Every structure is written in structure tokens, then in C-alpha cells.
TrEMBL record, chains A, B:
It is found in: Cell projection, Ruffle membrane; Cytoplasm; Membrane. It comes from Mycobacterium paraffinicum. Its EC number is 3.1.2.2. This is Acyl-coenzyme A thioesterase THEM4. It is a peripheral membrane protein. One of its GO terms (biological process) is fatty acid metabolic process. It comes from the Bacteria. GO terms for molecular function: hydrolase activity. The lineage of its organism: Bacteria, Bacillati, Actinomycetota, Actinomycetes, Mycobacteriales.
Amino acid sequence: MSQETGVYDAMFHPLSTAEADRVTALYAPLADAVRQLIDATIRTETDDDVVAKARGEIEAVTELLRQRIRPVGVSFRVEGRTLPLGNAVVGLCNPIAPPVVVRHDGDGRCSSEFVLGCAYEGPPGLVHGGVSALILDHLLGEAASDGLSKARYTGTISVKYLRGTPLGPLRCDAWIDRAEGVKVFARGTISDATGVTVEAEGVFIEPAWARELE
Amino acid sequence: MSQETGVYDAMFHPLSTAEADRVTALYAPLADAVRQLIDATIRTETDDDVVAKARGEIEAVTELLRQRIRPVGVSFRVEGRTLPLGNAVVGLCNPIAPPVVVRHDGDGRCSSEFVLGCAYEGPPGLVHGGVSALILDHLLGEAASDGLSKARYTGTISVKYLRGTPLGPLRCDAWIDRAEGVKVFARGTISDATGVTVEAEGVFIEPAWARELE
């Protein structure tokens, strides 16, 4: 974090494809283990002495991992594209990401199937409405930007809640609805086994610098 | 999880105020320790042997905490109100919640100051746009429902991105704009040190069963 501004500066650390594969294979299973720990932390009813022991061991592991660490704001790039290992929705190495694994089906359509456990809860037994917005925002952005390969800024996103979304297995679909000049309109849904629970529409804008590159 | 429907059923575990205080004091520091571990997990560059050791120890702690555990979908209630310890935005015992601590300023106004670290990243150095939507959805809901004390379902929420939101210290404000029959319109913003970065408007609806109770 910059001492002067209080904000994080973004820097890039380029990786070869082989290095990116090695980094992912090494750290993604660690993030998976932390996802299990998050679930256990929310649901545990163990006694004071067990909790104290667990806390001490978690702090020791944190110190271990901090022996060598990237500064905040440093991101990986592979062949000029961002490798979003730490992304809050799709980051394989970010324990708070479910993670959502996005499948691109061509023509700007994309989809994902995932399971949301109790870490994503809002009302009891239901997915937090904002978590649905978070995932839709990401998938609409992937659709509008051709898998994040084109520069597109989110202008606005509107999310309509049809009914509560239950925790458990879900899917998200997103597609390009239409383009008008520098604007791309994308739409998407979240569904459970019985149908759509949440709909979204977003407007994504191609920045002037990207238009000048074309 | 129900075997038949594949969805989690919600159940309530009533606590006295004293029990709620004890549970929060016991488990909130555990969640804090896991938040530090999440940050270290994303940023670590330690070698294979250290990662393998860390992973083994995390799995052992998870087993320890799972010795006694609540089923998924069981929520605490204190004096008839939900105690959202596991909530994805404000849950003190949920490691993926920043947590956002909401201050109610009267007249349906509420606000929060918080710090978002690299776990909430989208574009390099910036907060994921969907994370801004997640936090705004929560705070607008708090404003519209008088601190979640009244039943209000989110109908739609629209989020407008004015510029990128930097990781670091931020604030969120929300307030009731107007009420029309069963609909409450709430608005809100996320700001960094130099001003508003994201705006939102949401429509919240009082369900028929709540109107009949009044």
C-alpha cells in the first residue's frame, strides 16, 4: 500500500505459461484447504480450548506462508493477459472465490456450474442477494469482454431478484444481448434445479484508448 | 442438505443475549485469524515444502474444528431476531466477510467504514465491481428494512460505476430515498478518500404476510 495515498498500486509480474501452470498447481490446492477451513470456522461449535488451539495453529501457518510474499497489488500476467489467480470470483488461489470456473461457449455466451456453501449465506439457508450480484457482474463482464480479452468497463448493472436462491448447486449463464456503438449490453441469469432465481442486465463500455488501438 | 431437493433447509437455534455474546467473543477472533490466513494464502510465494506443510496443518485444524459442528442452514436467533454471525457481508464469524460493521444513524440512514484487501480484488489493484455491488446490496437492504428488523425483499438493485474503486480504506453510505405503497426505494454510494466511486439504487418490497401482521 502506498504510504502517501493509502491506496494500493497495481504492478505486473510476467510469467511464462509453464511458470503459470506451476504456480497454479502449487497454490490452488492450498486455497482449497483454506476453503474447507472457512466452512469449518463458520459452523464449529467446539469448546474454548479447541478454538484457542486452532487459532494458535492458524496464526503459525500464516507466519509460515508470510516468509516470502508478494506485495499487495502485484498481479501475474501470462503472454500479456492478466492471470486472475487472486480474483474474488474466479481466482483459483483466492479462498473467498467459490471459485467460479467460467466456460466460454462462443458468440459471447458463457456459463458456470458451482456450489455455494454457508460462507455465501445472507438470509438463513439462502444465498446473499449481493453474492448473486457479484457472480452475475463477473459473468456479464466475461461475456461482454470476450473472456476478459477486450477492454470493457462496467457502466451499470441491474439485478432483479425473482425469488430466494437456495445454498447448494447453482448455475450462471451470461450472453451478449446487443451492441450499440461503444456500448455492449449483456444479460444473464442464476438458476437452481427448478429454474431462474435472479436476472441481470449490464452495460459495458469500450474505453477511448482501446478504440484508438483498433 | 436435503437429499431429495438438493437445497439446504433453514432452521433456527435460539440463543439468550448472554449466550450470543459468549459465542461471538469465542468465534469472532477465530474468523479474524482465518482472514489473515486468506490474505497470506493469496500472496505467498513460499516453496513447495512450506506449502505442503502449511496445507497439512490447515487440514488438521479443519478436522479439529469439525469435531463438533452445526449442520449447514442452522442460524442463530436472539430474542426473535436473526443473529447474522455467518452473513457473507457483516458476519463477524464468517472469514469471507470483511466484515462490514454497519452504523445506523437514524431515519433509515446507515454507513460503514472498512478496508478491502487483496481478497476482494477484481482488476489489478482495484476492488472487484461485483464486491461493490455485494456491499451496496447489503447496506441498501439495511437502510430499507430498518436494520433488518422489518421484512423487506430486494426487488431490483441497479449499480452504476463512476470509476475504479481502489483496494484500501473505503466507506459505504445508504439511505431511504422514498416509499410508495409497499415499495421502499433506497440509495447508496461507495467512496474512497477522494469521493464517490459507485452509486446504487434499490427497490425493496414488503411481503404480503408482513403487511397482514401490522
